[in-house]
Amino acid sequence: MMTDCPLLDVRSVTKMYGRRIGCSSVSFDLWPGEVMGIVGESGSGKSTLLNCLAGHIEVDQGQVFFDTRSEGMKDTLLMSEPERRMLSRTDWAFVHQHARDGLRMSVSAGGNVGERLMAVGARHYGNIRNEAIDWLGRVEIHHSRIDDRPTAFSGGMQQRLQIARNLVTGPRLVFMDEPTGGLDVSVQARLLDLLRSLVREMGLSAIIVTHDLAVVRLLADRLMVMKDGYVVESGLTDQVLDDPQHAYTQLLVSSVLQV
Amino acid sequence: MNEYNFAYLDEQTKRMIRRAILKGLAIPGYQVPFASREMPMPYGWGTGGVQVSAATLTPKDTLKVIDQGADDTTNAISIRKFFQKTANVEVTEVTKDATVIQTRHRIPETDLSDEQILVYQVPIPEPLRFLEPSEPETRKMHALEEYGLMHVKLYEDISKHGAIATSYAYPVKVEGRYVMDPSPIPKFDNPKMEMSAIQLFGAGREQRIYALPPYTKVVSLDFEDYPFEASKAEHSCELCGSHDSYLDEVIVDDTGGRIFVCSDTDYCSSQQQIIKEAV
Amino acid sequence: MIKISNLSKHFILHNQNSAVIPVMDQAEFSVAEGECVALVGQSGAGKSTLMRMIYGNYLAQNGAIWVGETNVVGATAREIIDLRRKTLGYVSQFLRVVPRVPTRDVVAEPLLALGEEQTKARRKAEELLSLLNIPEHLWDLSPTTFSGGEQQRVNIARGFVYDYPALLLDEPTASLDVKNRSIVLGLVESAKARGAAIIGIFHDEAARDQVCDRVIDVTQYTPKAA
Q: Are A139 and A85 in the same domain?
């Protein structure tokens, strides 16, 4: 199980918004099959960091090495745009907090799931459709809804559709920005269960940004706590939550309402 | 006649448009931006095609203008008169006699030769537009050959209608590189785009020109299990009896009576002539 | 199998005037394969803290905790994840699971995480659940709604579904009836027999006497008030 090469190796990533810090000197590595949680309050830089890693915004300093299938470890920040875009629709996936940012709302559920397949060259309608049906099933959307548009779906269903759309090409790294935010608690639970089994079955690695400590406890193996653009503490998820070392983490953990 | 420069546009503008046309011919299917001028007609009436024609015409040319295949519709007549007045060129309704043919939404039935230029009027040049509203994004998609989205549109068609229901403006891939909107011609015309004549496309409002040099490879997008079909109405022309020309459905009375006739009026009348002579 | 030396820990409460609370001072002992050791000492002496430190749940300031080939003190998160997966099991008093996951899968999870085939893992989980008298009609339900005793047994099943070379048991027999208590003690006995090194906290003295070879009084490691 112990492979000797991380999937992602992040080195001192820094992003400034003018003189304001987006995120500063963030370094960590992520190994195959690991789920990393990033927590912190709004404005702590966690979403900035996620978008830097996923190549959505330009990074000022640092390196983000990814273990590519063909060439091994490669700095994604130095990749050409076509190369990076190819990566982001094959080996990478990005699950947005708001499903409508990650879905094509005017395209049917099947078309949404099929898009990445067609983007990498699938040209057989029947096969694409079967694959879409299979994936809708895996995210617990009944196949009879395949031709409905996401506008006709509930929030939880939209989020599950977004996940299916992202995972259909079998990515190895998934970025998730508050994937359970804005959902009812019962819907959240279903999504968490789904994410966890998908992560295990597909051997996915994931980076999950959230402010919900209960979510990271259940999903993440490791945890980074961010404040004002810096990582103030990181470690095993349960260790960071149960024996927080940094003042801010202690405050964060003690502020959670107990159920 | 002295009021207007030849073919209405000033020489600098025509030069600018010719440069765009040459660039378009050099990169088949690529949408070249150009500084579209205000024309004395509303957008949607062929301002792009008219500017391309104006930059293409020489005093020795013979012009034919068709709208949906017909020479006798308002749009065709206005544009024909416009160039008669501003360029004083010969005009014709006979396809094989024309050197420049400006068209809205059809390719003539008669095969074109390498002495001819076909100018299309284009309303929306961007084939990706309906699914991707952002222009920077669509340009990036063209640049990087990310055309998966085009098939999403066809997928949606099949899932909704059981077949690819797109029947006009059917997207094509040019020389294995750029995906192009052939303007709203019926998909029946798509196979004809691999032809001997030069094809130029002008979109006035969207300020884009693109082109196909003679004999360019033009492939209609499809799925392996839903191949492209150049379909037409399963009838023959009521007037000339042709089985293989594209037909318009015309309602002829108040009780729902209808007939099918050739959309290409020149082709239809020449077929009728042939029959008359044979009798 | 488990070797602890010179182990110390204190908590610093940054939000309460940086109060320093020492909780462990120079703990030192080891547990061999096939041995079961009970931690004793009054409440607050640091039994649970010590267990949590061995499991990597609490950080240590000083010393070493060797579990097999891994020194938990100073190990990377990834090494501890690997240790927990393959070597070190933990039966805590609390059941923390993703809501909605069926009991059978909760118990099978340690095997699935190791890449065991799903049907085999589930069969093994079912064996343990029936051994521990969890009625079959509950297997498809999430354990979050179970009674305390049932949750406790689900936790135990999860801890014994895979043959961990080292096991930490935090009050495994609390809130169990006589019948289930003896079943659990049987599981502990057989884990010992296959060579597992076990550290446990048992308030139930009879249980402790039955399965434990030695007793370690953690009060000796409790820091003296300054």
A: no
